[in-house]
Amino acid sequence: MFSLPWLELSRFKRHTITRLAMIVIIVIPSIYGGLYLASNWNPTDHLDKLQAAIVNEDTGAEKPDSDGERLNAGDDLVDEITPKGE
Questions:
Q1: 16 is in which domain, residue-wise?
Q2: For the region Disordered, what residue ranges are annotated (predicted)?
Q3: What phi, psi does 72 have (nearest 5°)?
């Protein structure tokens, strides 16, 4: 019943090149799969080492219906996001 698949696979045992080809066909996708799994295993574990920059080019605007008071939303956002003293 299963003699045909074993017969086909036994052809790969005869030559060194075919053995090597089968090993390469198995090993290379396994390496790619392992690297993919390792990179996505715990992505939030090292976020504290991720460097980021905040660029604030907000010039502010005058509030409507006010006496010249300015609204600086960019500065307010930077003050909320960054730790004090940085």
A1: 1-45
A2: 59-86
A3: -110, 80
